[in-house]
Amino acid sequence: DAVYAQLPNDFVIVDSAYKVIYDSRDTTTSTGVDLPVAAKPFDIEIILFYGQSNAVGIGGVPVIHRDSDGYHLGATGGAYSIPGVSYPIINLIENEVGAGTRGEVGCRAFVDRLDEEWALYDNSSTAPKYCAFSAGISSTTYAALKKGTANYTALTTGIQYVFDYAAARSLSCGIRAVFWHQGESHNSETLAQQTANLEELQTDLDTDLKAITSQTEDVHLFAMQVSGDVTTETAAADCALGQIAADANNTGTIHIVAPTYGTDQVFYDGIHFNAYGHSYHARLAAQSFIDEFIGSGAKALDVSATIVGTGTTITITFNVTT
Q: Is 0.85 surpassed by the pTM of this model?
């Protein structure tokens, strides 16, 4: 009991290798109301993690979520695999890829958090079905991930494959959120460049993914906060400030989310997550997804502050996500 008490309040007990300890669709707790319409705009909703190392599960071994819940979708190679590019669609699992340290991405933890939320409603049996996967490559700058690159093309190919999979079963399919893990390789770019990158990427994703799915819903870019332990302190500051500026400039479609401050056991080298860190970070991102689409909006950081001076003491209070 003492060990579990140290875990964050919203962290779920890990699934057993032999049976599911927690399955949100079996819960009997209810809010007394039906699932919000905004929770399920499509029969299958795509959840995508995109970017560099932390987007593709570097450090995420040993994997936590090896078992499938038998409901949500992914690709054969685990969360780090793109449907249709190199793997067919199966039930969502996490898995080691290759001989390196690539493993847990957080796709399953993300979807688990959504399941927990939807299970609180009376008609939870009609909860959304998700297809979650990740795309990208380690140690990569924005220049190798933006529209026109092989990585971006692989991403759109995967979206098309999932859409065709759904269409063949007479199911609607779309995507409202791309979770962006990137910035550690941008130690030479200015704050303005960082901001422009995010704004360009959101515009391109919105245009290109809508063209595939024919959806009217906007595609939001959720920028996952980067570690402060990057090449230089200046680079770390520019990454974070660039994300904040993009959020402030595009309050409806770009969001800075999933902080890691206050969590001292999520990294294995100060930059890359361990398996627990990938899961924990993904659950924070999922909460932002819930807040944005059925709540009052994702709000990770309010840069305004209250400043109070008393004698020789100045107290500055910032509003940050909890």
A: no
